Amino acid sequence: MVTFRFYLVSLVAVFLALAMGVVVGSTLIDRAIVDRLDRSVESVSDRLDRQRDENAELREQLQQLRDYADGTAASVVDGALEGGAVAVVAERGVDAEVVESAVAMLQQAEGTAPGILWLEPSWALAEEGDRTRLAEVLDVPETGPGRLRDRAWGRLVTALEGGSVQGDPLQDLAEGGFVTYQDVGEVESGVDVLAGVGEQVVLVSGPRSQLAPELTLALGQGLVRAGVPSVVAEAWDEQEDGPARGTVAGLVRDQDELADALSTVDDLDLVQGRVAATLALADLRNGVRGHYGYGSDADRPLPERPPA
Fold first, then answer.
1. Contact 98, 269 (CB under 8 A)
2. Do 23 and 121 sit in the same domain of this protein?
3. Are residues 65 and 104 in the same domain?
4. Parallel, antiparallel, or unpaired: how do β-strands 263-265 and 115-119 relate?
5. Residue of 77, 191, 231, 266 with fewest CB within 10 Å of its CB?
6. Are the CB atoms for 109 and 278 separated by under 8 Å?
7. Do 196 and 284 reside in the same domain of the chain?
8. CB neighbours (10 Å) of residue 77?
9. What angle in degrees, to the nearest 10, is found between the helix axes of 145-161 and 213-226?
10. Would you list the DSSP string of 9-72?
11. pLDDT at residue 295 in the model
């Protein structure tokens, strides 16, 4: 006879069987998952180790290339300028060590490049006091900032070339706080040493310049008007969310009248860029202009070495 107790025992047995099945099944599944995760972690770890080894090898190769470039740069530019006079004008904010290294390379190329003429932030003429002071320095009526800067730049370039000009622009602008001179090398001198060394000009700008990009364009236009063979060089500096390499040089390259009259370099921050700027100056003597570096609109990394 089937009793209630029989039903109860049967029901309990069923539930026990289900519980044991769940426990056993979940244990097997968990073990499989754990094993699979262990294999995945091991695989990722192996790939990470291989990637680290590859990165270390690439860093070593990159350092070897840098050492090679540094070691051969002097021989590449040796004698390229043959005593030619070069004025290096840099916008304040650009890495000073980069500009100093560029001047040192010009000196290695036997160029007459005594130092750096820095254009100070006051050159922007953003303040009324700066405009008043520059007008006094130039001994002209106070006008708009663009016209004042053009006048000052024109006189400055003429002084660098050694031409006849009203007053003493180099000294006057230095005393007014618009320019600062920095020697490069062991010989100490003053700003007047730059008078007459501007047969050619290297104008250095970059993303960290304290002068606006349109001022760089205005300076380039002034060099073209003066007929001075010049190189506009960008000392690029990597910044988070900053401009790409060649952005500053690209401003000149985008202006046909400037691109046809000036040479540009977008990697003065690299030794190959300093070599390019030096060889570009040598090319300008023969009327050859080009746009060099690694920016998107550069012609190629380096000019060809001019024949001896």
1. yes
2. no
3. no
4. unpaired
5. 191
6. yes
7. yes
8. 25
9. 50
10. HHHHHHHHHHHHHHHHHHHHHHHHHHHHHHHHHHHHHHHHHHHHHHHHHHHHHHHHHHHHHHHH
11. 94
Rg (CA), the chain: 33
- CA distance linking residue 2 with residue 259, whole number of Å: 106
Domain count, the chain: 2
Domain contains 151: yes
Of 17-26, 39-48, 215-224, give the range with the top mean pLDDT.
215-224
pLDDT in tens, 14-37: 555 565 555 555 555 566 777 777
Q: Is the pLDDT of residue 142 over 80?
A: yes
Q: What is the CATH number of the domain that holds 116?
A: 3.40.50
How many residues are recorded in the chain? Answer: 308
Identify whether 308 is part of a domain: no
Same domain, 166 and 22: no
Query: Distance of CA 167 to CAs 2, 35, 125, 138, 251, Å?
Result: 127, 86, 21, 8, 33
Question: 13 and 50 share a domain?
Answer: yes
**Do 187 and 205 sit in the same domain of this protein?**
yes
- Quote the tokens at residue 40: 């995945």
Residue 52: pLDDT band by 50, 70, 90 thresholds? confident
Query: Could you tell me the residue range of the domain that residue 134 belongs to?
Result: 83-292
pLDDT tops 60 at residue 158: yes
Strands 230-234 and 200-205 turn out to be parallel
Place of tokens 């009793």: 3
Among 132-136, 156-160, 304-308, whose mean pLDDT is lowest? 304-308
Amino acid at the residue 303: P
In this prediction the pTM is 0.80
Q: What secondary structure does DSSP assign to 91-156, as a single string? A: EBTB-HHHHHHHHHHHHHTT-B--EEEEEPGGGG--SHHHHHHHHHHHTS----HHHHHHHHHHHH
Same domain, 54 and 154: no
